[in-house]
Structure formats: C-alpha cells, structure tokens
Amino acid sequence: MSHGDPMFMSNLTAALGQVTDPFVLGVILVAAIFGLFVGAIPGLSATMAVALLVPVTFFMDPVPAIAMMVTSTAMAITSGDVPGCLLRIPGTPSSAAYTDEAYNMTRKGLADQALGASIVFSFVGGLFGTLVLITCAPMLANFALNFSSYEFFWLVVLGLSCAIVITPASQLKGFVSLLIGLLLACVGMNNPAAYPRFTFGNEDLMNGVTLLPMMVGMFAIAEVLRYAVNSQDNLGEVKAKIGNIFTGMWTLTKKYPASILRGSVLGTIVGALPGAGADIAAWMSYGISKKFSKEPEKFGTGHVEGIVEAGASNNSALAGAWIPALVFGIPGDSITAIVVGVLYMKNLTPGPMIFTTNAVEMYSIFLVFIIANIMMLPLGYALVKIARNVLQVPRSLLMPIILLFSIVGTFSINNSPFDVIIMMLMGLLAYVMEENDFPIAPAVLGVVLGGMLEENFISSMIKADGDFSMFFSRPIAAVLGVVAILIWAIPLIKLFLGKSKPPAGGNEDPVTKPGITT
Question: Which residues of 373-402 are buried (b: 16+ CB within 10 A; e: fewer)?
C-alpha cells in the first residue's frame, strides 16, 4: 500500500468521512468519558470497560462499535494512574507497576508532575504504537508468531526478574515477596493438569486468587489499615497542591528521550506478543528504566523517570496488541480477545486480507486510535482537575469511603462475597509485609505472571521430552534465555568474587556499594 497510491488517498478520504460523522464523534466522546470513569475506580479494569460495552455494539455499525472500544480502553489505562498517584490505589493492573513511585511523588508535593508525566507520555506511547500499527502491522505480527512456548517462558522469566530490579531496598526481600506472589498464583485449578492445589476443600478457591481483589486489597485495604493503626503519621501527608500538570513536560521530554523511546518500543513489541499485554509491558519497562537509569537509587522514593518510561509503554502496548488481532485474529491481550469477537460479529474477518477487503474500515480504526490518544490530553487534564479535590478531603473521611468503594467494587466483579474476603486477607498480608519492609509490587507481579510461567514451562518440557537444552534450541529463545540467566547470575558472581577477595582495609560490602568494582 503506497501512500502515493490514488486508492490509498480515496480510502483515507472515505475513512475520514466515516470518523468525522457526528454520531461517531459523539460515540468516541461518550466512550472516552466512560473509560476515564471506569479506569479511575480501583478494582475496575480496562478489560471490564470493553466487556461492558459489547452489548451496546450490537446495534452499531462496525466503525463506531470499534471506535467505542478503542477509545474506552486508551482512556481507562491512562486514568488508572490517577487514583494510584493520589491514593496509592492503582485503577488498573498496568498502573500497579509505578503506583508507589507516583504516590511518593504526591507526598513530596509533586503530584502535578507525576500526573502530567502519566498522561503526556501515555499519549506519546499511544501515538508511537499507533504509528507502528499503521506502518508495520504484518511484519511485527509475523515476528510475534515466531514466539513459541520456549520464547514465552524466557520472556516471563525476564518479566519476573524485573520484580527484583525494581525493589528499592533489599533485593532479598524483593525475591521473598516475588515467591509469595508465585505461591498465590499456584492456588486453584488454573494449571496445566487442572488439579486443585492449596484449596483446602474450599470450592471458592478452585478459581484461584483473583488478581483484581488481590490488588485492591494489597493497595487500598493496606492503606486503610495503615491509617487506622497509625493515623497521626498519615494526617496531612498528601496535602499536595496540584497546579498545571503540563508544566515541565517538555523539560522531561528533553531529559529522558531514551526512556520514552525505549518504553514505547518495548510496549509495542510486548503488546504484539499474544497473551502478554500492557500489564507486563509496564512492569518490564519500569524495571528496565531503573536498570539503565543514571540515578537508580532514586527509584522508589518519588522519581519521575520510571513513570515516564512505563507510562509510554503501557499505552503503546494497547496498539501493539491489535497487530496480531487484525493480521491473524490472534488476541494480543484480554481486551483484543473481546474485540476479535466483535470484529467477526461485524463481518470484519481478521487476517492479512482485511487491509485490502476492508481497507476503509481499517483506516477508520487507525484514525480513531489517533483521535483517542489526542483526546487523552484535554480529558486527562479535566479528570485531574476533578480528582484533585480528593486531596482536600480529610483522611478521616476519605479512608472509610475508600473502604466502602473497595468492598462494593470487589464484590461487583463476580458478585462474590468470597472475593471480598480475599481482598481483606490480601490487605492484611500487604500491611504486615510493608511494616517489615517487604515490597508489594513483586508479589503482584508474581500473581500476574505465575500462571503464564508454569503453563509455558510445562508445554515446553512436554515438547522437549524433558530435555532442558531445547529451551535454547531456537534463536530468539536462546537470546532471551542467555539474557535472563545473566541477570540472575551476575549478582551471584559479584557476591562470590566479593567474598573471595581479601578485605583491603574495611568491611564494605561490594554488593551494596555500586562504585566498587570486583
């Protein structure tokens, strides 16, 4: 498809006519407001926003139906950062990667910068992903199809490695927290053998520890408990004034161009891998940001660099997930799994030919992506102006309200009282962990990736007939495997060399002193 082709121009003109139709623009606006609302409520996810819209799409033409889903998804992912920043309660799972960082910035009086970075660089990442979707969809989809269970296993291992990298204090405590998350991921029948594990005869545990109740508990309920136990220390700690969130964003763009590009590229690639999605992209980008930062010691204390990279990553992953969905009908994440069903329902059969047989509709979808990302800026600004009133509410009133919304939101996910019990228990666990300086983020990541790790490991071992060397038999798998092993082995090698080297005049630990070489 040459951009100088007359057919291209006629298709683009027709697509512009479809998208600028007043009804379609109205649908986009309503979907944007709906997505902002769902994403900003802890416990509700972007996937839920799309699922709730499916019945509405039955009565729509293809373009407004898909436009509604694209817009609500982009807005929900972005607005999920707002409660994370103001209340330390991530609105969506992809926001959890940098919730602590954003909240610490709020406590330092930098809420406007944290929120501005989340919105602006989500916009940048979203536009980057859309550009890649428009220009490179078939090529990237072919690359994604090269990923077998071997590659996915190593990709998940790399994702789990980020849990250790992002731990601000003790990496050993980060590792323990990760193991707790992996243990929670083992509960239930969601394993390759469908064997009930750690259910203790409770039928409600057959489905495992659900991510959303766990996440609401570990962030929201833990915060409520912390306030209840030690309210005097919490009073006034987030009385931050929020000014113009766009002030200083150009300065951040000039300061962190590599982070923005790295997050956008990684998000698009991870999003294009079937089953990965924005959640994993955000976690990996935050970990990589800390690894390559010139100021890694500032991460976890309220440092904007990780938010810049991970914010760009999770929105570029949204567009990336559409690449295998459109080209092969293979969902890139749970959201595009729903969208693929709607595409079939609207007689837009996914496949390589969709770009020629339904060219106008495809260009319309691309234009909607661009419009949705542009709308993030004014609507995100409006959301922050409304949400900043939260900081003016006394904590003694705010905490009971958070508790009430957490209970109602968690119950509404599956209409299950047991989910509320899980939420409460996870909140208590998180409170105990944080009181003893064990980070929460690795535990959440362990639950997110635990099932995928086991599934791909078992599948690979069956295909390899128990021969572990087959995990390195394919070029991409070999590269990912070597990188993963190096990440885990280098700290151990440094530790061994540090202990075997005779002390030169002090008891300094070479592992904790980054300036000492071995």
Answer: bebbbebbeebbeebbebbeeebeebbeeb
Ordered alpha helix ranges (H), 349-440: 354-357, 359-387, 395-414, 417-435
Helix, strand, coil shares of the chain, percent, nearest 5, are 75, 0, 25
Q: Do the beta carbons of residue 278 and residue 317 sit within 8 Å?
A: yes
| 254 pLDDT more than 70 | yes
Burial of 187 (0-12, 13-18, 19+ CB in 10 A): buried
Taking residues 188-206, report their average pLDDT.
80
Q: Tell me what pLDDT residue 174 has.
A: 79
**pLDDT band, very low/low/confident/very high, at 166 (cuts 50, 70, 90):** low
- CA 237 → CA 14, 42, 103, 162, 321, distances in Å? 54, 21, 11, 29, 39
Token pair belonging to 54: 């499916």
C-alpha–C-alpha distance, residues 262 and 287, integer Å: 12
* Contact by Cβ (8 Å): 158, 179: no
Query: What's the pLDDT at 5?
Result: 55
Does the pLDDT value for residue 419 go beyond 80?
A: yes
**What is the average per-residue pLDDT within 317-323?**
83
Query: Please, which residues bridge with residue 188 across strands?
Result: 197
Three-state SS at 188: strand
Beta carbons of 261 and 278 less than 8 angstroms apart: no
d(CA 48, CA 271) in angstroms, rounded, equals 18
Tokens 């030169």 locate to 504
Residue 8: per-residue pLDDT: 67
Question: Which amino acid would we find at residue 147?
Answer: F
